[in-house]
Each structure stands twice: as structure tokens, then as C-alpha cells.
Design goal:
mainly beta, 5-stranded mixed beta sheet, single chain
Length: about 110
């Protein structure tokens, strides 16, 4: 399983471990874990950018995990190599919102 931690730094900025970029083995799970109390909620939205050599890498799209309500999210990538950007939308406990757009790669090198 690939784990991406979502937290805030000392200045209150939302941060993702590895800047949110990760490489998963085929058929692997990707989980986003929210740590601390500064982040109230996140959403994960896959973004396929035409002309960028990207494809839909998800066999199970990211969703709150464990269901039905959680600040943490999880998805499962498919068995084909590929990469795709995604957006992490967030709401902080002070009501402010924003997003970060990292990338997930599925690589045969991790089989």
C-alpha cells in the first residue's frame, strides 16, 4: 500500500508527504491519511489531462475510507502502467479551502 500523509506545516499550509506524488505497484492501494486537527475534510479527484500521456489508472476510484464518513481516502490502481494527476481539495478547520494537484504513477518496475 502507498500511503500519502495530509497534514499542515508550522505555518498552517496544507502539505502532502512526497508532495503527494507517489508510485504504486499494479493493483495496489493508495491511501491518503489526514493527520492533526487543522484539516476538517479532503476530497480526491482524478484529473486526466488530454495530450499528456495520461490514462485512468483507477480500478476502484478514490473514496472516503473507511466508509461512509472519514477524513481519510483510499483507491486501488489497475494493473496497467500509467500515470495520472489528481486534485486534493481540502477544507481547514478555520473554514479556508484550497487544492493541491500531485501525480500518481503505476509502474511495472514495482511488480
Amino acid at each position: 500500500m502507498v500511503t500519502i500523509n495530509v497534514s499542515t506545516d508550522a505555518s498552517g499550509n496544507v502539505t502532502l508527504s512526497g508532495n503527494g506524488n507517489a508510485t504504486s505497484p499494479p493493483n495496489g492501494d493508495v491511501q491518503w491519511n489526514v493527520t492533526g486537527n487543522s484539516i476538517q475534510d479532503i476530497t480526491i479527484t482524478p484529473i486526466i489531462q488530454p495530450g499528456q500521456g495520461e490514462s485512468n489508472i483507477w480500478s476502484t476510484a478514490p473514496r472516503p475510507f473507511p466508509l461512509p464518513t472519514s477524513k481519510n481516502w483510499q483507491g486501488t490502481v489497475n494493473s496497467s502502467d500509467g500515470n495520472e494527476y489528481y486534485s486534493v481539495g481540502y477544507t481547514k478547520s478555520d473554514g479556508s479551502t484550497g487544492s493541491i494537484d500531485p501525480k500518481i504513477t503505476v509502474s511495472a518496475g514495482n511488480r
